[in-house]
Amino acid sequence: MTIQHRTVDIEAASKLWKEDLSASQIAKRFGVSRNVIVGIAFRNRAFFPSKPRACNCRPHESKRALRKDKTAMRDRKPGTIIIPPHKYDLERLPFAKRLLELKPGECSWPINDGSPFLFCAAKTAGKYCQHHQSRAIGVHRITKREK
Prior knowledge:
Blueprint: H1 7-18, H2 23-30, H3 34-43, H4 59-62, H5 87-92, H6 130-146
């Protein structure tokens, strides 16, 4: 018995669907592929009501551990070097600017780790001021040695 896209066949498949048979089981009865039944069910949703989903098969994923610390919520890549705040950064904090407020010739080194992010904004000829340029080169050298 092959299924035709006639109302009679669609209603017969719908009856089996409502009896809680799977699309594969219905397809075997009609001698067609599962995809044919799924396609018919998709195009005729009035005849094929959605089935309730089974419970979560992966219980370990449904219960995730709550984070205790707000700092732990920041996602960092493994191996990321966290540069601690420097005395110079704390001195520059009153003069700091947001990224959109920075102008060309101002240091774009982030000096805090929160919202809103603030940047050094000291006068410079390049991307960073002299102090932050030396720190950037120092960090780069450390990562080169570790690799």
